[in-house]
Amino acid sequence: MAGIIIENVSKSFGETVVLSDFSSEFKDREFVTLLGPSGCGKTTMLRMIAGFEKPTAGIIRIGNRTVNAPDTFIPPEKRDIGMVFQSYAVWPHMTVFENVAYPLRIKRQDKQTVRQKVEQVLDTVHLSQYAQRIPSQLSGGQQQRVALARALVAEPQLLLLDEPLSNLDAKLRDSMRFEIKEIQKKLGITVVFVTHDQIEAMTMSDRVIVINRGVIQQMGTPSEIYRHPVNQFVADFVGKINFFDATIEEGLLTITGTGQQLDYHGPHTGNVVIGIRPENVRFASRQSDLRGKLASQFYLGDVNDCRIDIGGILMRVIAEPSTYAKYQEGDEVFLRVEDFSVFDDVGFDDHRRILT
Description:
Layout: E1 4-13, E2 16-26, E3 31-35, H1 42-50, E4 57-62, E5 65-69, E6 72-73, E7 81-84, H2 96-106, H3 111-124, H4 140-152, E8 158-162, H5 170-187, E9 190-195, H6 198-204, E10 207-212, E11 215-220, H7 222-227, H8 232-237, E12 242-249, E13 252-255, E14 260-263, E15 270-276, E16 281-284, E17 290-299, E18 304-309, E19 314-319, H9 323-326, E20 332-337, E21 341-344
Parallel strand pairs: 3-9, 3-10, 7-8, 8-9
Antiparallel strand pairs: 1-2, 1-4, 4-5, 5-6, 10-11, 12-13, 12-15, 13-14, 15-21, 16-20, 17-18, 17-20, 18-19
Helix pairs in contact: 2-3, 2-4, 3-4
């Protein structure tokens, strides 16, 4: 298997810069997710690792080989990678066995080796019983596993996944997330996964790289990205969050327009923006950090999704389901804030520099 080293990679199409000065190292056997909105450059980065696009500048190494550099380019078929696309791209006229065997037959491997490897990988992706079916006889999730098996059968050192779950329904996406992660652990393979879905990134990744407008915003574990976002874009893109303008002076943070305050002992002063995740706020039985009126609540079974008016500003609070029966709309409530983030007073459009 192999890791990946990316050094100062940029990509432009004409005068349009789609990826700017991307540098990172993906360790051997690591599951890394490139996360960001549509058009941010994540798929372009994946295609450059695969060899389907050439960088405008920079170097890419896979294992101990330089595959992209100003004077070097190794084509995709010689990079020892497997790739699964958003569209399953399985051959409709071939059986499952024939689809999976195709990469091995292109390499002219003998029939016994082909059969052995195909049967082994079909067992890994739980498709052994469907070997003689054609794709039209399979569900979407099964077709996706066929594409995954075909990418794995040649035993590549690197697996690239380009939004492979986006065409599946919610239940299938949920099960496939865990299946792909288990396969990665079993095979000990390095995976680079592209998605715009933060749940996929959080549940599958060892490390997440958040990208916006072609620029890395933050790199870290799912927990680091979620609990310690470096700017408003990351905080908003990964999870749910309330943003409020505020000022900080002498250890007190005042939420603008409400007169309500929170204790603060960090490095920021003056005008700031604070972010409070809805699940980090709890109803309190007596005067606590904040007070307000319950504007609305929605019982969702596992949670009570509330909106609290804290002085003309609505705050979303995701509370325990038992609170739905305890409070009525219009009730005065007290709130305990268990955690919050503080950001410089800048807008989302200002987050174009690299932040790590």
